[in-house]
Amino acid sequence: MDALPQALIENSTEAVVMLNADGTIRFASQASVRLLGYSLEERVGHDGFELVHPDDVARTRAAFAEVLRQPGVPLETEHRMRHKNGDWRDIAFIAVSRLDDPDVRAVVVNYHDVTERRRAERAVRDSETRLRRIVEHAQDLIYYCDPAGRFTYVNPTAERVMKYSQDELLGRHFMTLIRPDYRDAAVELYTRQIVEHVPNTYFEFPSVTKDGDVLWIGQHVQLVYEGETIVAVHAIARDITRQKNAEERLRRSEARYRSLIQGAAYGIYRSTFQGEILDANPAFARMLGYDSVQDLLTHNMRELYRTPAERVELIRRFAGEQYGDADVAWQRKDGTPILVHLTTRTVDVEVGVGGFEGIAEDITERRALEEQLRQAQKMEAVGRLARGVAHDFNNVLAAIIGSSDLLTASLPHDDPRREEAEEIRKAAERGAALTRQLLAFSRRQVLQPEVLDLKVVAEQLHGMLQRMVGDAIAIHTRASDCPAPVRMEPGQLEQVLMNLVVNARDAMPDGGTIDITIDPVSLDERSVLRYPGISAGDYARIAVRDTGVGIAVEQQAHVFEPFFTTKSPSKGTGLGLSIIYGIAKENGGAVTFSTAANEGTTFEVLLPLVQS
Ligand code: ADP
Ligand code: MG
């Protein structure tokens, strides 16, 4: 062999062997030593097939036969050979028969080790198989689109879910599967994704299957780049119809409960033990006079109580109880007192935070009506009693007066006993005056009502009233410019004014001032609550205010009762206010008072205004 080819052969990474026609090795290059770890001595003269993997021997021999059959035609083959260290190596061969070339007379075999390359190829193949398997068996819809949005691949799940075959989907635009009302939103999103290079997006939309069913799909879309260019779009999508329906059901049921609470007539709220108001419905805000629920939420439950101690006491009472209810004295935002019936449940308003869920009902009006009814019943009963007593008493007095007249007549003019007889008559007459009052109270008298202007009557009576109270007390009568006409018996109106003024006088033993105010008033549903027994409307009001001692708290509930008096028997009968009560009632009006110890008392009598 020439020196140059020899050098080439020896330095090549490509191993070269020359075989005789029987397959024995006639020559082996240095590179072949490096390839399989055997020395030249170990190889030259040996069978060329001896290191071939047993499974590959038959195939290799066949290839060798083929080479021998076609001299000069190279043949490529690949088989495994054993390295001296015991490993199997993948070797690629090119063999050509030069047996008929007188200069060579051998089969020349070039070969090199492709083990690493084959291993890498296998790894790629394996991982591709694995990925394909994942994609094909995925429960999610997986597909690729070209940048224009046409399907280039769809997995079996996508076919199954959308009910289209792969053939029907490939080349189709993905937008055609989105329900029309969502297409604009989808176009906008995916245009933006591509223009702004948003790597990932998630979008939920209703899609329509081939059968026309609507499915909710939640879809992740990812851009695939080659360099700077977007070459494809990958999508992983999932049928979220069930989840969507469940969400929708939950949303609807929440909305239903919300509307139930928002529309409730009762106040409903949630608060912490500390009094933070977490939630409330409009009825609750309205009941408490707040402009809105929002406004109310900035306040604390403590502010609703007229006395904060009441809340502390309630919490103490409810502690450890699941439910509790109580009537509580609350106040509206403007300070108006209200009575509220509260039903509460102790709950965890948040994890680990204790609080209340409560239902509140404003019972101010109901309680006022109950109270009025009780009062009216009591007055009615006492009135009936008084009527009976007055009737019998009148007969007794008539007998006394008659007898004292007879006694007087039977006595001589100068008889000193006549004076005693006169005294008996006078006392009996005072008693008769009292029974007349009682009868007036019990409505036995025939009344002759007429239309009177309160202002005029008050002015006419002014002089008489001033004389009744004496010089130590000044009476100021003020009347508004508006006339205040009422329909009633003039005598009754006098009785009302006189009784009020006399009571005021008695309350001011050291003198003072009496203010009489006459004016028309218009009462709405709420302001009318101050006056028991009447409904909203227009009234004429007589207010008599004194600067006297006031009415003690424990006596306030009793002043309208007949015979209730705090005065000595010679001064008081306890009938004045009950008569006023009776007169006011009879004429469709009402009487009430406000008082403060040592500051004075104001009595108000309301009578229906006669519309001219
Ligand atoms: P009498 O005046 O005969 O006692 P009334 O029915 O007129 O009976 O009054 C009942 C009670 O109400 C009085 O005894 C008094 O205690 C109280 N009272 C009435 N008016 C006043 C007033 N202006 N100031 C203080 N107390 C009053
Ligand atoms: Mg009196």
Q: What's the arrangement of strands in the largest beta sheet?
A: 2-1-5-4-3
Tally the structural domains: 5
Q: Helical region count?
A: 18
Output the CATH topology of the largest domain: Heat Shock Protein 90
What's the rounded overall pLDDT mean? Answer: 89
Radius of gyration: 58 Å
Distance between the termini: 148 Å
Backbone structural class: alpha+beta
Helix content: 40-55%
Question: What labels would you give this structure?
Answer:
612 residues, alpha+beta, Beta-Lactamase, five-stranded antiparallel sheet, 18 helices, 40% helix, binds adenosine-5'-diphosphate, binds magnesium ion
Structure in words:
By secondary structure, the protein is α+β, with helices and mostly antiparallel strands. The protein has 5 domains: 3-120, PAS domain (Beta-Lactamase); 138-244, 2-Layer Sandwich (Beta-Lactamase), CATH 3.30.450; 263-362, 2-Layer Sandwich (Beta-Lactamase), CATH 3.30.450.20; 367-441, Helix Hairpins (Orthogonal Bundle); 450-608, Heat Shock Protein 90. Helix content is 40%, strand content 28%. It has helices spanning 3-11, 30-36, 40-43, 54-69, 115-137, 156-162, 166-169, 183-195, 241-262, 282-287, 293-297, 308-318, 364-410, 417-441, 454-469, 490-506, 553-556, 576-586; strands at 15-19, 25-28, 75-82, 88-97, 107-113, 141-145, 151-154, 200-208, 214-226, 229-239, 267-272, 277-280, 323-331, 337-350, 353-362, 450-453, 473-479, 485-488, 512-523, 537-546, 590-596, 600-608. The strands form 5 sheets. Strands 2-1-5-4-3 form a 5-stranded antiparallel β-sheet, with helices on both faces. The chain has a 5-stranded antiparallel β-sheet with strand order 7-6-10-9-8, sandwiched between helices. Strand 6 and strand 7 (151-154) form a beta hairpin. Helix 13 runs antiparallel to helix 14 (417-441) and helix 16 (490-506) runs antiparallel to helix 18 (576-586). The longest helix is centred in the middle third of the chain and has 47 residues, at 364-410. The structure holds adenosine-5'-diphosphate and magnesium ion.
